[in-house]
């Protein structure tokens, strides 16, 4: 735990750097106030107060205030208010019945010993964070099923006491724990855990458990394939049983029950004043904030949950839109003005081994229009994997170079950077464009050389990773920057690039509806490539039951014998990286037994970026045959020699995700295959998976998925991947997004700075939300 002096120093350093660099509010990503709103600022309320409003001040006012703040820190006048380990009683917990503001630290919430620490470790330092850490799904535990009537494959939740427990080790290194649970109605269920020694202490005899999973029937006895386990201690069970219950993101050692209790306390303790004036709530048919927050954490029924979710989703979009529009104020910037001559487009196209598709042509026109104007281009090109985005971007880069500028292409990982580099060399090399590569893995000497060439303009197009936006890379004359988005770059990083004022093109393969793309990338114009190049042999997809796994892997082995490679993807396991890793490891081990001839390696989410790159690179070099992985391979790496993908427990994936995964094969000329292995599943799930079997069009799949999911269904796993949007259901929210956008525009049209007293709460909520997001980016 940090000492007072250390904490003070941690805060002092960025503040004095800010002072030294002329008080431009640039030193800290997201700004000085965001730094102070972070846990780092928590112990220093006086400093925080002294710099409140910093973002809006003149440089002189900033300088003066910074000096004051630094003085407070250096002579120790500012006594930390809440240094966790050193002063346990510094933050008095709320007295019973006392109300606390949303910005109070969680130490003030009565959550039992270690409670505050647990919440902080989940990234929830303030009460507002607890209120807005919504469950990622809900389980209906009102009427638990009659065990005599459950059906094979049905997903159920049961509650009961452990009446019998045994452990066995059928072969060395394998641990099986069997538990029999007796429900209050006297029914019995058997559940089994393989190789999960850490769950054992929760399974002692007499413990009360809530289990969720799929039913397997053996005659009259019911077995459960457990997907979710909770222990309930009698005193608290009213939050965890007999109702619709939220399931939260957590980590080992922090129970669902604890999180529910914390949420409950926070709801009781914070006055839930609504920041959205009543007439707007009426206009958009939204419930009030209190009802919404209660309904999200502790819904009375489905209707309550759905109106809660509608309101909170609306808010997320509203704040996102407001922020985008507010930032957008200065976003219409002067950029480069290119000629972008048609002759050059023709030259580029004649050097290609193919003709552009109509969609590519249309998008290229949109891009060249932007390039020819004075305004800085900020355009998102969205298109399915393989739709030809990179080819279009290469053409734009060529045009920039022909006009005497440099171009850059930024990729999220080194391996993708190398891949783009190879592609651009192929496109642009023959046209006498000098293409360079700059990535972290290069030797310092090569890096320096490349940096020097970039600075003197003796390289025309540079491909790289984040290394490209680092301080010591100076372009001679950067005109166009292409960013291969693939989810990894944040808005901040994009802006950093933007600040050099090149035109900017972002590429993304995520098939999301237009209205949503506008929201998620509100600062970008949108172009869509909605057509694949002709002559692709679509990936042949087959859905099979897991009882036919052996045949599936027999087929995989056949492909390997022909010199091909295969991806095997393991199912996503909710709530735990560790479990996911274990599942992947287990699968790799199993495959080594089933396919002794194959060379098998493993890729998973707990690896560092460099480790992942290393494994991917050796897979690309055909150093092994089967890559077993968790879903991290979604990122767009080309392995043209991989012709098969097996997706285990396909029923657990979303359709769009399956589609993205499948896009990893079929990238070479050989015919490719995707095998979806389904475990126990319902008719409905089967119908859903059949969509993937029947179509290879990302937009068709997203649409069909949307239609199949009934409106009454309880919300599933998180989907958006966009940090501000925790609840967003991208496919379904078009209408809400449009309404939120309309309201945001309306608000700012009448009150561009949100100064009206009636909007005071809205304004501070907007600031607070931006701060918590920015904080995550700072860290
Ligand atoms: P994306 O960046 O959208 O994944 P790419 O631009 O990398 O797509 O194109 C995928 C593959 O298709 C590449 O091998 C590329 O050469 C090829 N390609 C691109 N456009 C066309 C086209 N119009 N006709 C035929 N092949 C194309
Ligand atoms: Mg691509």
From TrEMBL:
Question: Which InterPro entries does this entry report, sorted A to Z?
Answer: ATP-dep_DNA_helicase_RecG, DEAD/DEAH_box_helicase_dom, Helicase_ATP-bd, Helicase_C-like, NA-bd_OB-fold, P-loop_NTPase, RecG/Mfd, RecG_dom3_C
Q: What's the EC number here? A: 5.6.2.4
Alphabetically ordered keywords of this record: ATP-binding, DNA damage, DNA recombination, DNA repair, DNA-binding, Helicase, Hydrolase, Isomerase, Nucleotide-binding
Which residue ranges does the record annotate as region Disordered? 83-105
Domain Helicase ATP-binding, by residue range, is: 370-529
Domain Helicase C-terminal residue range list = 568-707
Look up keyword Isomerase and say if it applies.
yes
What CDD domains does this protein's entry cite?
DEXHc_RecG, RecG_wedge_OBF
Q: Does the keyword Nucleotide-binding apply?
A: yes
Matching PROSITE patterns: HELICASE_ATP_BIND_1 (PS51192), HELICASE_CTER (PS51194)
Which is an annotated GO molecular function term of this record? 3'-5' DNA helicase activity
Record's catalysed reaction(s): ATP + H2O = ADP + phosphate + H(+); Couples ATP hydrolysis with the unwinding of duplex DNA by translocating in the 3'-5' direction
User: Looking at the Swiss-Prot or TrEMBL record, what is one Pfam family this protein matches?
Assistant: DEAD
Q: What does this protein do?
A: Plays a critical role in recombination and DNA repair. Helps process Holliday junction intermediates to mature products by catalyzing branch migration. Has replication fork regression activity, unwinds stalled or blocked replication forks to make a HJ that can be resolved. Has a DNA unwinding activity characteristic of a DNA helicase with 3'-5' polarity.
Query: Which family does the record claim for this protein?
Result: Belongs to the helicase family. RecG subfamily.
- Please identify the protein, giving its name as recorded: ATP-dependent DNA helicase RecG
Source species of the chain: Deinococcus metalli
């Amino acid at each position: 735990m940090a000492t007072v002096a250390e904490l003070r120093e941690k805060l002092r350093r960025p503040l004095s750097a800010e002072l030294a660099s002329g008080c431009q509010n640039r030193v800290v990503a997201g700004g000085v106030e965001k730094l102070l709103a972070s846990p780092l600022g928590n112990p220093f309320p006086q400093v925080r107060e002294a710099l409140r409003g910093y973002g809006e001040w003149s440089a002189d006012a900033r300088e003066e205030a910074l000096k004051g703040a630094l003085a407070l820190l250096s002579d120790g006048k500012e006594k930390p208010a809440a240094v966790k380990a050193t002063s346990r009683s510094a933050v008095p917990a709320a007295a019973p019945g006392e109300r606390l503001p949303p910005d109070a630290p969680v130490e003030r919430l009565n959550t039992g010993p270690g409670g505050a620490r647990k919440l902080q470790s989940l990234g929830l330092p303030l009460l507002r964070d607890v209120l807005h850490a919504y469950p990622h799904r809900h389980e209906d535990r009102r009427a638990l099923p009659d065990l005599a009537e459950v059906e094979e494959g049905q997903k159920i939740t049961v509650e009961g006491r452990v009446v019998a427990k045994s452990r066995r080790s059928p072969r060395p290194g394998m641990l099986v724990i069997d538990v029999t649970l007796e429900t209050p109605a006297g029914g019995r269920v058997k559940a089994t855990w393989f190789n999960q020694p850490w769950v054992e202490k929760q399974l002692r005899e007499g413990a009360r458990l809530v289990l969720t999973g799929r039913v397997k029937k053996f005659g009259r006895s019911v077995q459960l394939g457990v997907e979710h386990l909770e222990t309930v201690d009698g005193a608290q069970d009213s939050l965890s049983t007999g109702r619709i219950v939220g399931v939260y993101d957590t980590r080992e050692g922090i129970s669902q029950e604890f999180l529910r209790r914390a949420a409950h306390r926070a709801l009781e303790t914070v006055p839930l004043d609504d920041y959205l004036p009543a007439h707007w709530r009426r206009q958009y048919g939204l419930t009030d904030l209190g009802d919404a927050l209660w309904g999200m954490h502790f819904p009375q029924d489905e209707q309550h949950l759905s109106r809660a979710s509608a309101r909170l989703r609306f808010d997320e979009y509203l704040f996102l839109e407001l922020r985008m529009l507010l930032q957008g104020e200065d976003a219409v910037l002067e950029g480069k003005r290119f000629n972008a001559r048609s002759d050059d487009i023709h030259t580029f196209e004649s050097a290609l081994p193919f003709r552009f598709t109509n969609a590519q042509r249309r998008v290229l026109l949109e891009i060249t229009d932007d390039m020819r104007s004075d305004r800085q281009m900020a355009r998102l090109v969205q298109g399915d994997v393989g739709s030809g985005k990179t080819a279009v971007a290469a053409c734009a880069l060529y045009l920039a170079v022909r006009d005497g500028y440099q171009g850059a292409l930024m990729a999220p990982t080194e391996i993708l950077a190398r891949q783009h580099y190879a592609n651009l060399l192929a496109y642009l090399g023959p046209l006498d464009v000098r293409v360079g590569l700059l990535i972290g893995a290069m030797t310092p000497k090569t890096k320096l050389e490349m940096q020097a060439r970039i600075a003197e303009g003796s390289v025309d197009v540079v491909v790289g990773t984040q290394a490209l936006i680092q301080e010591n890379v100076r372009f001679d004359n950067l005109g166009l920057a292409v960013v291969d988005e693939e989810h990894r770059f944040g808005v901040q990083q994009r802006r950093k690039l933007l600040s050099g004022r090149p035109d900017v093109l972002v590429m993304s393969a995520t098939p999301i509806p237009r209205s949503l793309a506008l929201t998620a990338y509100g600062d970008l114009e949108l172009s869509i490539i909605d057509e694949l190049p002709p002559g692709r042999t679509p990936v042949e997809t087959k859905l099979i039951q897991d009882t036919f796994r052996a045949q599936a892997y027999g087929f995989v082995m056949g492909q390997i014998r022909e010199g091909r490679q295969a991806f095997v993807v393991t199912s996503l396991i909710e709530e735990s990286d560790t479990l996911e890793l274990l599942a992947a490891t287990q699968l790799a081990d199993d495959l080594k037994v089933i396919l002794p001839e194959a060379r098998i390696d493993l890729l998973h989410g707990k690896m560092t970026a460099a480790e992942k790159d290393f494994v991917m690179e050796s897979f690309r070099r055909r150093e092994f045959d089967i890559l077993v992985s968790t879903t991290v391979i979604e990122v767009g790496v080309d392995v043209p020699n991989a012709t098969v993908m097996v997706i285990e427990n396909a029923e657990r994936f979303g359709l769009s995700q399956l589609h993205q995964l499948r896009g990893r094969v079929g990238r070479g000329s050989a015919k490719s295959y995707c095998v979806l292995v389904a475990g126990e599943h319902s008719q409905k799930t089967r119908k859903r998976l059949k969509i993937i079997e029947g179509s290879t069009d990302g937009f068709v799949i997203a649409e069909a998925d949307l239609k199949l999911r009934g409106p009454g269904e309880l919300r599933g796993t998180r989907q958006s991947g966009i940090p501000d949007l925790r609840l967003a259901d991208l496919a379904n929210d078009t209408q809400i997004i449009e309404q939120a956008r309309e309201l945001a525009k309306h608000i700012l049209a009448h009150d561009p700075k949100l100064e009206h007293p009636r909007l005071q709460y809205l304004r501070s909520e907007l600031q607070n939300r931006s701060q918590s997001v920015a904080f995550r980016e700072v860290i």
